[in-house]
Amino acid sequence: MAGSFAAIIVVQQPNLAQSLSLACAGLLLGTAFSHLLLTIAKTRLQAFHRILPVSGVVFAMLLSLSFVFNAYQWEPNIVAEYTPAVISSLVMLMLGVVIWSWHIIKHSAPAKGQLVVAFLSLMVTNVGLLQLYWLA
C-alpha cells in the first residue's frame, strides 16, 4: 500500500526531473533507515553494512543530478535567491553520506549513533530540497 502510494506521488510530478528526484530521495532515506534498523536488530548479515551505504551513495548522486536538471529550469532571479539553500542542502547531503559510509572508510562496525546522525542529516537534506522542487 505504501509503495503504491509513493509510486502515485512520483508519477504525478510535472516533469521527469522532479519524479526522479522524489524517487531517489525516498530510496535514499529508505536505505539509510533500513541500515539503521538492521544495526539496531544486531543482524549478522554483514554484507548489508557495505551494500546499503554504497547504494546510498548511488541514490545521493542520482538525487543531486536530478535536482540539478530540475534547477536548470529555474529563472535567473530564482537561482540567485535560492543558491545558498541549494548549496547548504547539498553540503548536508554529502555530510550525511560521508557519516553513513564512515565505518567502511575506517574498516569498523557501524555504530547506531553514527547511523542516526547520518539519517537525520539526510532527512534535513530532503526537507531542504523538497521546498525547492516546485520553484520552476
Element layout with pairings:
Layout: H1 2-11, H2 16-40, H3 48-71, H4 76-106, H5 112-132
Helix pairs in contact: 1-2, 2-3, 2-5, 3-4, 4-5
Transmembrane segments: 20-39, 51-72, 84-103, 115-134
Keywords: Membrane, Transmembrane, Transmembrane helix
Alpha-beta classification: mainly alpha
Mean pLDDT: 85
What is the domain tally? 1
Number of separate helices: 5
The largest sheet, given as strand count, sense and whether it forms a barrel, is:
none
How much helix is in the residues?
over 70%
Rg, please? 16 Å
Distance between the termini: 30 Å
Tally of extended strands? 0
Q: How would you spell out the order of helices and strands?
A: HHHHH
Low-confidence stretches: none
> Which strand-content bin applies to the residues?
under 5%
Query: Per the principal axes of the C-alpha atoms, what is the gross shape?
Result: globular
Transmembrane segments: 20-39, 51-72, 84-103, 115-134
Keywords: Membrane, Transmembrane, Transmembrane helix
Name the features:
single chain, about 140 residues, mainly alpha, 5 helices, globular
What does this structure look like?
- The chain is mainly alpha-helical.
- It has one domain (2-135).
- The protein is built from 5 helices and no strands.
- The protein has helices at 2-11, 16-40, 48-71, 76-106, 112-132.
- Helix 2 (16-40) packs antiparallel against helix 5, helix 3 (48-71) packs antiparallel against helix 4 (76-106) and helix 4 runs antiparallel to helix 5.
- The chain starts with a helix and ends with a helix.
- The mean pLDDT is 85.
